Amino acid sequence: MAIFLHLQTHTMGPKEVSRIMEAYDRALRILCVKDRDDPLTEMIATKIIKVAQTGVKDPAHISALAIKELEIR
Questions:
Q1: 13 phi and psi, to 5 degrees?
Q2: Phi-psi region of 55 (alpha: psi -120 to 50; beta: other; left: phi over 0)
Q3: Which residues contact 18 (CB under 8 A, 6 or more apart)?
């Protein structure tokens, strides 16, 4: 999964990782991305982490902002 590669390069606590994973899974569901090998997953993972690093804590909000930044939907 694309998100795991990103999480390995960032120092985060368990709560942060949990929020990011929830936001990532949520974004994939909203965007109907079922193939975890789809290159889109890499872009989503990057945006999710970028948004999470701004201090946003709510996974739903993180995923919404990431989707908006991707300008999809």
A1: -80, 170
A2: left
A3: none
Phi-psi region at 40: left, alpha or beta (left = phi > 0; alpha = psi -120 to 50): alpha
Tokens 């902002």 — which residue? Answer: 65
Query: How much is the pLDDT for 6?
Result: 61
Query: What number of helices (H) and strands (E) belong to the chain?
Result: 4, 0
Q: What is the pLDDT of residues 30-68, one digit of tens each?
A: 999 988 788 889 999 999 999 999 999 999 999 999 999
Determine what percent of the chain falls in helix, strand and coil, rounding each to the nearest 5.
65, 0, 35
pTM over 0.85: no
